[in-house]
Specification:
Order of helices and strands: EHEHEHEH
Oligomer: single chain
Largest sheet: 2 strands, antiparallel
Strand order of the largest sheet: 1-4
Shape: globular
Radius of gyration: 15 Å
Number of helices: 4
Helix content: 40-55%
Amino acid sequence: AAGLIEGAVHVPAIDKVPFLTRVPELVNRWSSEELVIFTCQYSAHRAPQCANWYREQASHSQQVAILSGGFRQWEAMGLPVKQVTCSVADAQAADEKALQLGSQLLQSVSTQRAAQTNGHCDEAREGMIPGRVDDS
């Protein structure tokens, strides 16, 4: 990425250890927090999916949210960021990679969900838990 939100904890959605595998550790680590906010470059794919995985295992009293517009909107508003030194081309490549990774994550989740439901659809938007976290 071209930067991080200052003071935020960076936990990659896609890494050698899949995020879903790390959720129990993160739920335990952040159990005393009243609010946990998820974000990615645009908060369009990875952040909502990771927030839902987290919400499934977190206490019902803990609020889980998604930062609307993600890092890019935060940065555009002039809010504090920790810059990672890179060129404009590298920043553009990071944006493209973020969109690619988000699409891959959604495709992977869709494939897993289809296999679990044997092709049956439910009323929830793909990757979302009804009534829990909303990315709109």
